[in-house]
Amino acid sequence: MSEGMIRLGVLGCGSIARRFLPWFAEHPALRVTAVASRDRARAADLVGSLGGAGAGTDAVEGYARLLARDDVDAVYICLPTGLHADWSLRAIQAGRHVLVEKAMATRYAEAAAMTAAAEAAGLQLWENRMFTHHGQHDRVRRLVAEGAVGTPRVVASGMAIPPRPAGDIRLSRPLGGGALLDTGFYALHGALLFLDQNVEVVGASLVGGVEPDDVDLGGAALLRDGAGLLAHTTFGFQHSSRSYYELWGSEGRLVVERAFTTPADLAPVVTLERGGHVERLGWPPENPFAAFLTAFGAAVRGELDGGPQADTGLRGARLLEAVRQSAARPAPLRPPRTRSEIS
């Protein structure tokens, strides 16, 4: 690092990189030194899309070449999910801090190995859960703690998007595709905002495609924590777009729309229903990704403990795997449909 400025390399040039790279380039504590792709022309095109903000950023052919550079302190890995573990471990072995896109890995064992490697090397490994850095979630938790809905009884959390076009990497099993690791990630982490540490999967179901190699296209999971709070999560690739969570308590209900995809220029509105009255609480716009990058930079500089981020990443990876395992169990018992089936 040079005078506290973190020199960042980017692995991958897909749609996620194009969406977020401008925020990296504009952040005052970061300097994007290189962008890597398997095709240098693609990397150059991405750098060019930054305009003046891309000045001084090199286009690199090959991810390994970027990791070998001496002007990279940390890397942002925005490759397909199935490649996250491999390249995160390579980056850690090269002595780089890692910010990896969600989900951090396809399996819990991979996530645990990544976390252990980073801890042993004294490096930061952060999964991109930028939505949690939007202030609306802390405000909602305060409202709940102050009794806005009475005693919380159930959390509902969901995210879904319309069908993906043919060739979309989220439909590729080898690349770690599927709704559970994509939209399901948000639905589950939305529930984890309110559940205690002792979460169990009561039941789950995944809806797949027609062919054996098709990925899961949607699903649902019922969770329960140690205090008995239930959470119903839904997710998928076959729906109209929605991103939300709600808390239903003994005295009211609180709903947050666009909970995981809040644009930086959107003033969030939370709906509180209580005692027959509806109140809409509005807050100023915030940029959760900028806040997330600020926190990541502080952790890299040793100014912030990154342990809670690592713990939450592992907790989420374990829960994603538990949902998949629950859904793979034999079909549940079905109640008889007619009197003749009972006898």
TrEMBL record:
GO MF terms held by the record: nucleotide binding; oxidoreductase activity
Domain Gfo/Idh/MocA-like oxidoreductase N-terminal: 6-127
Domain of life: Bacteria
Keyword Glycosyltransferase carried by entry: no
Record key words, sorted: Oxidoreductase
Residue ranges occupied by any GFO/IDH/MocA-like oxidoreductase domain in the UniProt entry: 139-254
UniProt record similarity statement: Belongs to the Gfo/Idh/MocA family.
Protein's name in the database: Uncharacterized protein
Organism: Actinophytocola xanthii
